[in-house]
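Good morning,

Attaching, inline, the backbone tokens for the sequence recovery test we're adding to the shared suite. The designed sequence is right after.
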């Protein structure tokens, strides 16, 4: 798994040169700016709503009054820290919902970039994706629905774990790796869609190559640390890097 994570990360390092050499910038900047604006707006409101959810839970359960009694004790500290962990976990879940919406809306652009990258790597003429947009959109929607159900299931388990002192502190880290895996899954599936690979085989590949998927999703997340430019470049870079990683693994 570690070797595949390294391959995925290295592929991101080669994307910038690949885009420059093959003149793909116009397919990066426009959609990237739209993604960055939507990301900024969404995360602002998601952050607000996460705070409201936690405040509501504390008020309705009467937990706030009880915490006042332990304000200066270790118990108070543990519950306060658990509240912070819960807020981070909710924010991650909201981001996953935003991610799935973007994957559906941006599927035509992502599909084109995926096919263009595949054709360049294999020195072939790109397939006309316009004929398959509706079919690919339905495939992508099914995959998004499947992944969303699984992520929601795992999210509620992690949500319960946040109530366990100390053990619950690692839940955001677990949630992060789940996010990376499922986002990378969607990026790689664009390649499989272009190759007419059945969805069940795509799922099987994801199970056998978790490192590639996690590595792709991890760098995608880390690019958001570079506020502004990272947001613009992250989605398209993830699509292209996924194709490059898949090409390396198959050729190996």
């Amino acid at each position: 798994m570690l070797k595949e994570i390294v391959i995925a990360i290295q592929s991101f390092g080669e994307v910038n040169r690949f885009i420059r050499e093959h003149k793909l910038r116009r397919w990066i900047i426009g959609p990237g700016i739209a993604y960055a604006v939507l990301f900024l707006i969404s995360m602002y409101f998601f952050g607000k709503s996460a705070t409201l959810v936690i405040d509501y839970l504390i008020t309705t359960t009467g937990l706030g009054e009880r915490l006042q009694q332990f304000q200066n004790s270790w118990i108070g500290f543990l519950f306060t820290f658990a509240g912070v962990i819960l807020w981070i976990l909710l924010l991650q879940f909201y981001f996953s919902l935003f991610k799935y919406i973007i994957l559906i809306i941006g599927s035509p652009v992502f599909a084109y970039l995926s096919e263009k990258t595949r054709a360049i790597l294999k020195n072939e003429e790109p397939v006309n994706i316009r004929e398959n947009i509706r079919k690919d959109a339905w495939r992508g929607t099914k995959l998004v629905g499947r992944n969303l159900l699984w992520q929601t299931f795992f999210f509620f388990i992690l949500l319960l774990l946040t109530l366990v002192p100390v053990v619950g502190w690692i839940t955001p880290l677990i949630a992060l790796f789940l996010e990376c895996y499922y986002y990378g899954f969607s990026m790689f599936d664009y390649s499989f869609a272009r190759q007419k690979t059945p969805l069940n085989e795509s799922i099987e590949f994801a199970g056998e190559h978790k490192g590639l998927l996690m590595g792709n999703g991890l760098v995608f997340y880390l690019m958001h640390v570079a506020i502004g430019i990272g947001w613009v470049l992250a989605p398209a870079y993830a699509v292209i890097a996924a194709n490059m990683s898949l090409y390396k693994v198959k050729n190996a």
